[in-house]
Amino acid sequence: MNQEMNGYCPELESRAQAEKERERQTNGHEKIDYVFKVVVIGDSAVGKTQILSRFTKNEFCFDSKSTIGVEFQTRTLTIQSKVIKAQIWDTAGQERYRAVTSAYYRGALGAMLVYDITKRQTFDHVARWVEELRSHADNSIVIMLIGNKADLADLRAVPTEHAVEFAEEQGLFFSETSALSGDNVDSAFIRLLEQIYGVVSKKALESDVGKMNGGDSVKLSGSKIDVISGSDFEISEIKKLSACSC
Ligand SMILES: Nc1nc2c(ncn2[C@@H]2O[C@H](COP(=O)(O)OP(=O)(O)O)[C@@H](O)[C@H]2O)c(=O)[nH]1
Ligand SMILES: [Mg+2]
């Protein structure tokens, strides 16, 4: 599949790497302990881009057009005394053609799997997205199932209990959100990041024990960044290609 068709852009991938590298070299401004890559997936028009926009900029764009560029946005926050930069990737609309590539999932430690509580079909497709994650992403990826558009309660087509049941069966975390009102968006991301932090610290611990025992060490997937002092909480810069008239 060529680059135009699947929307994967090597330039962006290298920019993401460059950003990680810059952070490693930052002096005195920002103290970043970890950068966690999180991908947002799910059917088209469920609100993925708006959830991301709410979390990283506290904005909702009524006039959003479908996303036109693979993009990531970032937000830095403190979790369990560690400064964590969430690098959250949005699709370029490839989900419409089920053409999200493995490159999109590469290195992701977490996934927000979004459906629309008013569109049953988007929930019915969640199982396919879970399969996609299981086959392309790291085994230890933390998945948060998100029922978005909770503000449209009168149009609800997916009972909360169905989603809870599915999430329990599949070992996913679950939350209902509204990108429009902002309800639960921060808390869902924070829960996901906390869980990722738990996985990464556990791997680091196992790796240390492995080394002490002289055995093969377990690979640490988070990007550990050298510590420099700086602010506790910040909404960092946005790099956006998607079309939005806000
Ligand atoms: N009522 C309501 N509309 C939403 C919400 N989130 C997104 N939308 C709308 O749903 C449409 C699709 O949103 P978008 O973020 O572009 O979906 P994506 O294709 O999954 O990225 C847009 O018209 C948004 O304004 C929400 O929480 N509540
Ligand atoms: Mg989008």
From TrEMBL:
InterPro entries attached to this UniProt entry: P-loop_NTPase (IPR027417), Rab_GTPases_membrane_traffic (IPR050209), Small_GTP-bd (IPR005225), Small_GTPase (IPR001806)
Pfam families: Ras (PF00071)
Disordered: annotated segments: 1-26
Origin superkingdom: Eukaryota
PROSITE patterns, sorted: RAB (PS51419), RAS (PS51421), RHO (PS51420)
Assigned protein family: Belongs to the small GTPase superfamily. Rab family.
PANTHER family, per the entry: DRAB11-RELATED
Protein name listed in UniProt: Small GTPase
